[in-house]
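Re-run with default settings, no changes from the original entry. Doing this only to confirm the output is reproducible before filing.
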Amino acid sequence: MKNKKNNELAVCGFATVKTLEKINSHRIKRLYFTEEKAPLFAGLCKKLAKTKRPYNCVKDAKELEKLSGSVHHQGIVAMCEPPQVLPLTKQIAQSWAENKEHVIILDRVGNANNLGAIVRSAAFFGIKNIVIPMDESQSSITTSSYRVAEGGMEFVNIYSINSIPSLMDDMKDKMVSIGTALDAKYSTRNLKELCKDKGALVILGNEEHGISDEIKKRCDYNVIIPFANMGKQDGPCVDSLNVAQASSIILYELSK
């Protein structure tokens, strides 16, 4: 939940706030917690007290629900400066190519929990760059996505872009563009071979429709995640994996 008046984002969940305390405690403006969680955040309270930032032990956990807009607060809510979503520049993209970094591009992934889960996987596999389009159908950083990321938000950079196809055109021959499709010729098992010692732009599509046709045709390669009975007439029991599940498999293959 965002407090637009004070430019604050509610960050909740034990692991999430603990990681925020460790990496970016300077972004915390106010802290609220239950009596049960108080001993676990004594060190953070001392940090806040030194800089005269308020903290409060609440008597009723429902107060935390009101602050965060979630029943999944786990007894702790930090009101923070929202993380910046920076506009992507050509200089930043060029540095990815030079350093052979992998990048995740989200093509209208609308569910905040999916965004959070993708961020968590990216942090786990050491991929620090995520690009999202400036599109109403694309989820941005919310209390929910922050919580689901389980601290992963502190280890990634999220950039915004007007046009994914334009970025792909700019990075042609500098990075390898990888999409996902059910009719793909290549398997995710081929990812390291397909990258040819270059950084990859991994495009993950919308939950319902996948990546757009405009993006799919620009990909250097489209890949499919191997499924049970692959190659047989019956095909998979379900059409596809959830986009967050798919991202974990793809990023694992890239990290081999």
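The longest strand covers residues 28-34. The chain has a mean pLDDT of 92.
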